[in-house]
Design goal:
Elements (H helix, E strand, L loop, with lengths): L1 H23 L5 E3 L6 E8 L4 H17 L1 H10 L22 H8 L1 E6 L2 E2 L3 E3 L5 E2 L1 H13 L2 E6 L5 H6 L5 E7 L2 H6 L1 E2 L4 E10 L14 E5 L3 H7 L9 E5 L2 H10 L4 E5 H11 L4
Parallel strand pairs: 3-7, 3-8, 11-12, 11-13
Antiparallel strand pairs: 1-10, 2-8, 2-9, 2-10, 4-5, 5-6, 10-13
Helix pairs in contact: 2-4, 2-5, 9-10
Length: 281
């Protein structure tokens, strides 16, 4: 009996110690640095020459902004209206006489949207493996007003231009940043959302500003504008290593695991990823 009491007492002490250790374990938190890698804008990318289709999609988006539909979609995902409707085409051109892109799409009855399906909240898979997001809701409404079916086609983001020019998709609509290279390679819609390239780090780390990335390992998405913004910054020659990922969520998970020291990512996606995935497992 005495041994039983001693064993019970030791067990209680052990459980108490485990409980205290668990309670005292600090939860990791993640923050973005105040200093960014530059501001940018999102636009939809169409094949060069598909100006008729692009301008009809733009007309419907303008209509959605005017009647409040775009605002409602933005409120659903951001709790505020971030959709902008006061920009010009990055490179405008007239619809040519032989441009049948809009007629051809209506004849097919399908609008194929290419995206990186792991780019929350613009386009990503939910807990039911359904592709959802800001851009998906916008495109769904556009297709409804066009009278065609929306087909969402996941693509390799690093090969997005090839997917578009080969005709496998009708557009790239997935939080795509306007860059000089993309202006030349595609016909872009008017910018519809503002964004910044930001750095995510663990709160309390020794990285408080961009210059602190010297000697550190930085993660970013392959083929993204984050790569371009990073390469254009003087810190690019001072970091220890750059690790490229297929998607930003995988990069963030590696940040949590300590395999990289910082993540360079679109602010829109970064804020959502921190809120959704930035908790200890």
């Amino acid at each position: 009996m005495k041994r039983m009491k001693i064993f019970a007492a030791l067990l209680a002490l052990t459980m108490a110690a485990v409980s205290l250790f668990s309670c005292g374990k600090a939860e990791k938190k993640y923050v973005t640095l105040p200093e960014d890698f530059g501001s940018e804008e999102y636009a939809i990318g169409f094949r060069p020459g598909d100006v008729a289709l692009a301008k009809e999609v733009q007309r419907i988006l303008d209509e959605m902004c005017a009647d409040g539909t775009a605002d409602t979609i933005s409120q659903k995902w951001f709790s505020t209206n971030l959709i902008v409707n006061d920009r010009d085409y990055p490179r405008d051109e007239e619809v040519s006489a032989d441009d049948t892109s809009l007629e051809d799409l209506k004849s097919r009855g399908k609008f194929i949207l290419g995206l990186d399906d792991s780019f929350p909240p613009m386009g990503f898979r939910d807990e039911n493996n359904e592709i959802v997001g800001v851009d998906i809701d916008l495109a769904t409404e556009v297709c409804k007003r066009l009278g065609v079916e929306l087909v969402v086609q996941p693509i390799n983001w690093d090969s997005k231009e090839l997917e578009l020019t080969s005709g496998k998709i009708d557009c790239i609509w997935n939080g795509m940043t306007v860059t000089d290279e993309r202006i030349e390679a595609m016909f872009l819609s008017k910018p519809y959302l503002d964004n910044r390239q930001v750095v995510i780090v663990e709160e309390g780390s020794k990285i408080a500003q961009v210059s602190d990335l010297a000697g550190k390992t930085v993660g970013l998405q392959k083929g993204s504008s984050a790569r371009e913004a990073f390469d254009a910054n003087p810190i690019a020659s001072q970091v220890k290593e750059v690790v490229e990922y297929e998607d930003n969520v995988s990069a963030f998970l590696d940040l949590q695991a300590g395999r990289i020291d910082a993540l360079l990512v679109d602010e829109v996606a970064g804020n959502y990823i921190i809120a959704t995935y930035g908790k200890n497992n």
